[in-house]
Every structure is written in C-alpha cells, then in structure tokens.
Design goal:
The complex is a heterodimer of chains A (about 210) and B (about 475). Chain A contains ten helices and six strands. Chain A is an alpha/beta fold and about 210 residues long. In chain A, α7 (about 155-165) crosses α9, α7 (about 155-165) packs across α10 (about 200-215) and α8 crosses α9. The chains are: A alpha/beta (about 210), B alpha+beta (about 475).
Chain lengths: ~210, ~475
C-alpha cells in the first residue's frame, strides 16, 4: 500500500511515517504544506493520503481543503484527515461527494497503532471511518430523528461501529455476537434505511451517510 | 380674554396632573398603562372624532377638494384641513398603540405629524397655483432634509409643533366670537368666526383638545431633541452625548479588562489542575516503569499503558480548553461556519440561516460566537424547546436604524444582527442569569446591544446587534 503523509510539525510527521512503515505501508511522500500536498497527491496518486487539517500557508483548514480539491480532480481518492479536534461540519464536507474512501480521526488515535493502521487500510479500501467522538455527538443529537428511530438498539450499535469504520468481524468481537448475526443486523439496517441492494461496501458507506446526514 | 384663557388652561392642566399623580399613587392604574394605553387612545380618539365631524357637517365629499386645488372653496377648505389633521392624529394614535416593537421608525418619522398639521392650516387659505407649487417644493425639501439630516429635521419638527401650537392659541384669543379656544382649525382673522359660526361647539372643543395634544407633544420633544443641542451650541452645559459616551466607554473598557483577566485566570487554573497535573503523573509513571523494567517487565508495561491513557486524557482536556478559549473552527472558517458547527453539535434541532459574505474582525467574531453559544446553551438547558432557529445578517448600510435610535453612538459602516429564537416555554429573564449579562457586557465593548423577548409561554427571541464591517471576501473554495 502506498501513502502520502501531510503534517507540518516535524516530530509528528516523522512519527507518522515511521508508524506507517512499521506496518508495511510505503510512504511515497511526506509533505509539510497544503500546496505541497495537492502536488504530491496529483503526482503520486497514492492508495491513501493521511492529512493534518491544519497546514501552512494559512494554518487554518488548508489540509482539508487541499484534500477535497484533490478528490475533485481524482474522484474517490482515499483521504484520512487527522485533527486535534473533530467537527461534524468537516465530517459532512468530507462525506458530501458520497464516494467513500474518507476518514476523519482525532490525532490521539495514533496512540493505538494497530487500530490506526486498520483505519488507514479501511479508508484505502473505500470504506468510511469516523472518529468515535463524531459518532457520539451524532448520537446525542439524533436521538429523535427519522429514519434512524426505526432501528433497534442493537442495530444502532452496529451502525455506530460501522461509522467508526470497523469490519463485520471487529463489530462481532466488540458486541460479543457472531459475525453472522452482524451480517443479519446490517441487512436489516440497509432495509430500514431504504438502501437498494448493491455491493455491501457501497451500502455500508450509504448507511453511514444516512446516519450522519439525517 | 387672553388672561382668562391662560388661567383656564393652567388650571385644567394642574387638575389633570394632580389627578394623574393621585391615581398612580393609589396604585389603581400604573404609569405604564397611562402612557401606553390612555394617551394613545386619546390621540386616536381625537382623530376619529375629527373624521366623524368633518363628514357629518355638510359636504361629505370635502376631501375631494384636496385633489382639485384650483376648485377649492372657502366652505370646504376648513373641512379639508380638519380631515387631513384628523387622519394624522388617528395614524399617530394607532402607531403609539401598536406598541414598542413597531416603534422603530427613524427619527424623521416625527415629521409625519407636523407636516399634515401645517399643511392643514395652509389649506385653509385660497392660494394660487404658484403658491401651491412653492408649498409642494417646500414639502419635498423637508423630506430630503429628513432623509439626509435626521437630527436637524427632528429639531425643526419640534420647533414647528411648538410654533403651530402658540400661533393657534394667539389666534384663538383674538377671536372673541369663538366660544372655546379653538386652536387648530382656527385661522387668523375673520375666517375663524366665519368657519365656526356655522358649526357646533363640539368642533371647537375638538380643536382645543387637538391643539393641546400637539402643543404637549412639541413641548415633550423639546428636551429630547432641540434642547440639548441648543444648550451645547451655546456652551451652557457640557455635551451630554459626549459625556454619556465617555462614561459608557469607561464602563465597557473596565468590563472588557475584567472579562479578559477572569478568562486568563480560568485558563491558568484549568491548565494547572488538568493537563499540567496529568503530565506530572505521566512523568512519574514513566520513571517508575523505567525502574521496574529489569525486575518485573509486566508491571512496567501496565504503568506504560497507564501513562498512554493519561496522555490521551491530557489531550482531551487541552482540546476542551482550546475550544473554550477560541474554537478552532472559528479561526479556520469564521463566524458563519463556526455557528453552523455549533448548531450541528446542539442536542436539539437547530436551523441556521446565515448570510455573511466576508469575515469579521477576530475580536467581534469571537464575541458574537460566544454570544450565540450562550443563547443556544440557555435554550438547551432551560427552554424545553424542540426547535431553535439562528439567523445572522450583516447590513452594510451606514444609516441602518438602531433599536435605540435616540443614541448618538458612532456607527461603524455596517450592522451585524444575530437572532436566536426557540419555541420553548419562554420566561427567560436576563437579569437573573449571569450568562446573558456577561454576553451583554462583552458585546457592549463593541457598542453592541442585546435584547431578550421572552413572554411566559414562549417563544424566546434573543436579538443581538453589533456595529461592524465585513472584511475581505471569503476565499475558501468549500
């Protein structure tokens, strides 16, 4: 797997590169600014980009904007955004093109390198990974909204973990149920959210979108 | 005659004032009831009586003569004048009755009353077309003056009201044939007797009440408009506006310094008790782990895991702290998107309607953000609302009417208006909670104001206005 890393703080950039390489991810370019990121993404067309939201030149959300720019030119280019804080607003902007292959995580999540690399792989594979903090905020807010209310408590738990980017087996492990049961729950979720049959991956993305956009 | 008239007027006025004081003192009626209900009703009532009289005394189509200026006849002219005045009174009364919410007329709205009154007097004479053209030009000039120099126009309107009242009294006193002091329908000279000789004393009584109301209005306006200006011009007293402004600036500056100091103390305390303490614990854990590695690596690993958790918690605390000092999304995207992000994070349904084509100054942006955040937090905590609506607009118009249109605060070339409305139980009282008071003080630093309208039973509407300019257009491509 080939990756491009964008992070302006040298220590963190170095740490990220070493972490990814330790898990057999080849880092093709490590850049420290938004224009550099856009150039590297268009030059290398990596399998995944790991991007800090805040980058030079303006030190605001340049990283996010450069990544969205790149996705407009290369549709579906997988992008994992890292940030010191998470905003639902940014999550929505990332998800807006409905193409999947996006992730949005707090920087703290790199502490758990296995989970972090899992997330990188999920995004590279076209999945959607949302930070548990984004998901928790949504749950606090969306308690009364349709059509999520149609889901049973267990189905909501499954959808929540799906939004965090976990695979069926990881969800099964987490909820202490069989993988088959997870499959059943997700079929039921897709039906209740009126998602037409298509590939399972695509429907997962759409289910997460429905969850985020209600 | 003159002396008797003045005595009667003074006596009547004294009796009225005494009666009012007694009524208010006994608590049977409130002062607010008199000013908000009785006075407007009297004014409107005068207008209605005038309308009825002008229609019941002879030619019911008197108003038609207003259109055919050349065809105006002596007999119809006073009825036309009365009609015009009555409409003005009725409109003024209704305007007063309709309550403070709609009383946002700009200053030159004062001209609306004197223009028909003076116009009515002028109609009482048979002017030629040239004179009428001159009058029309005069009216247009007055409107232009009101638009471009509202303060001057208000002063002139006051002078006009007082002068018209005095002229009326003098001419009434000079007309012995009139049974009561008929002030307004009256015109100088013999026309008075001609006009009133033919009509009932009711009309004369009405004219007297009308005159009293207009004169009282003029006198009421004197200390509010021309009085202070004249005094300041004559250097008889310090400029009250300027003195008030200095006092306000001193107060808001002290508040701003206090707020900033309190904020710094809070940040210091949070860092000291939170992240700093956690880092100390982290260092101790790591040191202990270092010692344990040779002897019991298992225990060392547990300590290292604990240290990792501790650093995650420290990060969470720092993140919350940063959000409280200056939310990153506000720095990144400005007020509009920061408020949208805030709405997304609010546990009740929150709709935003924001139109800001540029960025505000960072301090204003921050104050407005925290003001909206406070209003939202109140709605969530106390209102029981199911829907909150946030509306933010910026008007670049320098002459945009302020809610306190009497103030002379220097206006920046634009006004930011923020409204937070919820459909909850209402009854919010800004004087009880410290949150909205803090917001009010913080906005006051920028000459901003806050108004809360929250009747019991709801809805609650919080309106904030801050004079400010929008800077460069947003460059974000998102």
């Amino acid at each position: 797997m080939r990756a491009v890393v964008a992070e302006d703080l040298f220590l963190l950039r170095d740490g990220l590169v070493r972490l990814l390489e330790a898990h057999d991810v080849e880092v093709e370019a490590a850049v420290d600014s938004a224009p550099g990121l856009l150039q590297a993404l268009l030059d290398h067309r990596p399998d995944v980009a790991v991007v800090d939201v805040r980058l030079p030149p303006s030190f605001t959300d340049d990283g996010l904007r450069a990544a969205l720019d790149a996705r407009r030119q290369v549709p579906g280019l997988p992008v994992l955004i890292l940030s010191q804080y998470v905003e639902q607003l940014y999550a929505r902007e990332l998800l807006a093109d409905q193409a999947g292959g996006v992730g949005y995580l707090l920087k703290d999540r790199v502490f758990n390198d296995d989970q972090f690399v899992d997330a990188v792989r999920t995004v590279a594979g076209g999945g959607t990974v949302m930070d548990p903090e984004v998901v928790a905020k949504l749950l606090g807010r969306r308690a009364r909204d349709e059509p999520i209310t149609r889901l049973s408590a267990r189905e909501r738990e499954v959808l929540e973990l799906m939004a965090e980017g976990r695979s069926n087996s990881a969800i099964a492990q987490r909820l202490f149920i069989t993988e088959k049961a997870v499959g059943k729950h997700s079929t039921s979720i897709f039906a209740k959210l009126d998602l037409a049959p298509s590939t399972d991956d695509n429907r997962r993305v759409l289910a997460v979108l429905a969850f985020l956009n209600t | 005659m003159m002396l008797r008239l003045i005595l009667v007027v003074l006596l009547a006025a004294g009796c009225c004032a005494l009666a009012w004081r007694m009524w208010v003192a006994t608590g049977r009626i409130s002062k607010a009831w008199v000013t908000r209900r009785l006075v407007p009703l009297v004014v409107a009532g005068v207008g209605v009586c005038g309308l009825v009289l002008s229609w019941s005394n002879g030619d019911p189509f008197a108003f038609a003569h207003l259109n055919g200026i050349g065809a105006m006849t002596q007999g119809a002219s006073w009825r036309s004048a009365l009609l015009l005045q009555s409409v003005a009174f009725l409109a003024a009364g209704l305007w007063l009755i309709s309550g403070p919410a709609s009383r946002r007329l700009p200053r030159w709205g004062l001209l609306l009353l004197p223009i028909p009154v003076i116009g009515g007097l002028l109609l009482d004479r048979n002017y030629g077309p040239a004179a009428w053209a001159a009058i029309m030009v005069g009216v247009l000039l007055a409107l232009a003056l009101a638009t471009f120099f509202p303060v001057v126009a208000a002063d002139l309107a006051t002078v006009g009201l007082v002068a018209v009242g005095l002229i009326g009294i003098v001419s009434a006193a000079n007309s012995p044939s009139v049974p009561l002091p008929s002030v307004f329908v009256a015109v100088p000279g013999g026309q008075v007797s001609q006009a009133f000789g033919a009509v009932s004393p009711k009309l004369a009584l009405l004219a007297a009440v009308e005159g009293a109301v207009v004169l009282a209005f003029g006198l009421w306006l004197v200390p509010r408009t021309i009085g202070p200006h004249a005094m300041a011009l004559l250097r008889l007293e310090p400029d009250a506006e300027l003195a008030g402004r200095v006092e306000q600036l001193t107060q808001t500056r002290a508040d701003a310094v206090d707020t900033a100091a309190a904020e710094l103390r809070r940040v210091e305390r949070d860092l000291h008790d939170g992240a700093q303490a956690r880092l100390v614990a982290l260092g101790m854990n790591l040191r202990a782990a270092e010692r344990l590695i040779p002897t019991s690596p298992q225990a060392a690993m547990a300590l290292v895991a604990e240290a990792r958790e501790s650093s995650a918690k420290a990060l969470t605390e720092l993140r919350d702290l940063v959000r409280g000092v200056h939310p990153p999304v506000l720095a990144d995207r400005g007020l509009a998107d920061a408020v949208r992000a805030l709405a997304l994070d609010t546990p009740i349904r929150t709709e935003t309607d924001i139109d800001l084509p540029g960025r505000l100054d960072p301090p204003v942006e921050s104050a407005c953000y925290f003001a909206v955040a406070e209003a939202l937090a109140n709605a969530v905590k106390h209102s029981g609302a199911r829907l909150v609506q946030i509306r933010i607009r910026h008007s670049p118009d320098p002459g945009a009417p302020r809610a306190d249109s009497w103030s002379f605060a220097p206006s920046a070339s634009g006004l930011l208006r923020l409204e937070v409305t919820d459909d909850g139980v209402g009854g919010a009282d800004p004087s009880r909670g410290t949150g909205l008071q803090g917001v009010e003080r913080r906005l006051a630093t920028f000459d901003g104001i806050l108004a809360v309208n929250s009747p019991p039973g709801g809805p609650t509407m919080i309106i904030m206005e801050v004079p400010c300019v929008l800077s460069s257009l947003r460059t974000s491509s998102c």
